[in-house]
């Protein structure tokens, strides 16, 4: 999908793709997810956008960094705060290929992200309306707008492929290692 977006983005006249659109930005997050996939990480990618410009790009690096908190969103939030020289990301929108977990949703609220746009939902662990909704929790002092389902099928397919391959590789040994809180 991202290759198609790139191919089309070259057209100067009447571009078919709006380079500030949710679809384009999620395409960029999907490229990050594909990088995670190639690094044998659970393939989830994230970008953060400020005034139409991408200020952070990251993918899940839990295995690479041996850090259970190294989710794509957490790494992207750190990058974005550095880029803005401010922890308040009130004018920033976060695109992630899967619905954020409770840890990331908590961080999103702390950083005051304006909008969260995600790919596939997660009924079991999602914290933007899937299993709970922490980014629109009435008792908290910040709420983010949520747009679900942008490139959701593509994202879900990549994650399912990753887990199917991981199970195949580890067949018969350490089966529990491929269990994950992520949808599978
Ligand atoms: Zn997370």
Q: How much strand content do the residues show?
A: 15-25%
Strand order of the largest sheet: 2-1-3-4-5
Number of helices: 6
Inertia-based shape: globular
Structural class: alpha/beta
Largest β sheet strand count, sense and barrel closure: 5 strands, mixed
The end-to-end span amounts to: 22 Å
What is the CA-atom radius of gyration, in angstroms? 16 Å
What would the average pLDDT be, to the nearest integer?
90
**What order do the helices and strands follow?**
HHEEHHEHEEH
The low-confidence runs, each spanning 5 or more residues with pLDDT under 50, are 1-5
The unique ligands bound to this protein are:
zinc ion
Helix content: 25-40%
Write down how many β-strands occur, each being a DSSP E stretch of 2 or more residues. 5
Q: How does this model look, in words?
A:
38% of the residues lie in helices and 16% in strands. It is α/β, with parallel strands linked by helices and 184 residues long. The protein has a five-stranded mixed sheet. It binds zinc ion. Zinc ion is lined by residues 71, 73, 100-101, 103-104.
Task: Please outline what is shown here.
With 184 residues, the protein is of the alpha/beta class. It is built from six helices and five strands; from the N terminus they run H-H-E-E-H-H-E-H-E-E-H. The longest helix has 18 residues, at 152-169.
């Amino acid at each position: 999908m991202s290759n198609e977006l790139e191919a089309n983005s070259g057209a100067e006249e009447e571009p078919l793709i709006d380079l500030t659109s949710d679809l384009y930005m999620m395409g960029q997050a999907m490229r990050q997810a594909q990088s995670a996939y190639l690094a044998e990480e659970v393939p989830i990618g994230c970008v953060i956008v400020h005034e139409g410009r991408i200020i952070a790009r990251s993918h899940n690096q839990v295995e690479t960094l041996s850090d259970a908190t190294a989710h794509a969103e957490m790494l992207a939030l750190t990058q974005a705060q550095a880029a803005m020289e401010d922890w308040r990301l009130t004018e920033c929108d976060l695109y992630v290929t899967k619905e954020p977990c409770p840890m990331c949703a908590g961080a999103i609220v702390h950083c005051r992200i304006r909008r969260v746009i995600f790919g596939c939902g997660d009924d079991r662990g999602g914290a933007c309306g899937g299993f709970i909704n922490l980014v629109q929790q009435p008792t908290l002092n910040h709420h983010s707008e949520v747009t679900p389902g942008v490139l959701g099928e593509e994202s879900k397919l990549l994650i399912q492929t990753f887990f199917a391959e991981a199970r195949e590789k580890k067949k018969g040994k350490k089966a529990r290692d491929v269990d994950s809180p992520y949808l599978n």
